[in-house]
Design brief:
8% strand; transcription
Length: 149
């Protein structure tokens, strides 16, 4: 196997390519709603966790706080989220879903479910279960390493 064949088959390249293609397809399917995949992810974190400080959103999205601030600026202007000062620390800005965002999230779920069904088409139930189990183990292995540092 030559060097380019090894790179094509490496775990990192395969996972990156799969993630990139899923994200690109989701953005194509959800384009009518005017949100990027990063913005969708931000909305989902707020749906799952409730109102959050911008700094926590940056951690969850794994992007710089200034990038979250700019994203939230655009989303607030478009009516997807609101920001308000934390009652205990006015330096902290709490981001919360608007009614507009709450109404659109079920549509995003349908888009994602359809995309994931298409992504996993041709996989048997046992192959799908093995894939999910393997990914959960991979995540756990890497999460354990976070605690070792």
């Amino acid at each position: 196997m030559n060097c380019s064949e090894i790179q094509k088959e490496s775990l990192g390249f395969l996972m990156h390519d799969a993630t990139r293609l899923i994200r690109r397809e989701f953005e194509r399917l959800a384009a009518d709603h005017g949100l990027t995949s990063a913005q969708w992810r931000l909305l989902v974190h707020l749906l799952r966790n409730g109102p959050l400080p911008q700094a926590r959103l940056a951690e969850l999205l794994e992007i710089e706080p200034i990038s979250v601030s700019r994203m939230v600026d655009r989303m607030e202007d478009a009516g997807w989220v609101t920001r308000s000062p934390d009652p205990n620390d006015r330096r902290i800005r709490i981001v919360e879903l608007t009614e507009k965002a709450q109404e659109i999230l079920p549509q995003a779920r349908i888009i994602a479910d359809d995309l994931y069904a298409r992504t996993l088409s041709g996989f048997s139930q046992s192959e799908t279960e093995a894939l999910f189990s393997s990914l959960r183990r991979l995540i756990a292995n890497l999460s354990e390493n976070d605690h070792v540092r």
